[in-house]
Amino acid sequence: MKDGKITKKIYILSGAGLSAESGIKTFRDHDGLWENHSVEEVCSVEGWERDRQKVSDFYDARRADLENKEPNAAHIALANLKKTYPNNIVMLTQNVDDLLERAGCPEVIHLHGTLTDLRCESCKTEFEVGYESQEGKQCPECHSDNVRHNVVMFGEDAPKYAFLNVLTRAADMLVVLGTSGQVINTASLAQAVKNSIISNLDADPSIDGYFQTAIHEPATTGVPKVVMMIEEYLILENQVV
Question: What's the pTM?
Fold first, then answer.
């Protein structure tokens, strides 16, 4: 079966639950903290304007911590799916880590930015910093030292949310993995798409009911099952065509 014959588009939207089993804490734990910091303190425009050094130090620490993390079975399953069906799978993630890429997944769309990049506030260039500290870095384009983390904060625009508008028009299937739906209204997205699957560790009747299929397992066991469902859907649709 040649991938080029399949025209269906599957949009996969992942969140913090995808990376939790790799040791990366969820963006907002039940106590409202991320790595013992108030989310508003280190993830908002107000927090950034109040204490830029604290916010920069926070993201430096997250970057250094990420270097020692490894992709888990869920990342690997998704990467293999994307490589097998490159023209049919659109990979969207709310995560700022690079574990999907390190699992071999191409063309990941990071809706909330990327931890391993910095952004120049003077010319808006984004450039890779890897797992290094932001301290002493300059923009490779304009050589300004007015640079910051490349993670979208509360209170500023998220330009790549435009892909969510495309999703509602173009997706034949929506797959939601490891996200509560608190930041992006996944229930609303599911209502706009004919076929839908959600996989989260915990059940949430207020969201799950909008999806055709709901799986409640850790990502490392739930996502491989979802991948099998996606492949069965693509194969069946190809046979119908």
Answer: 0.92
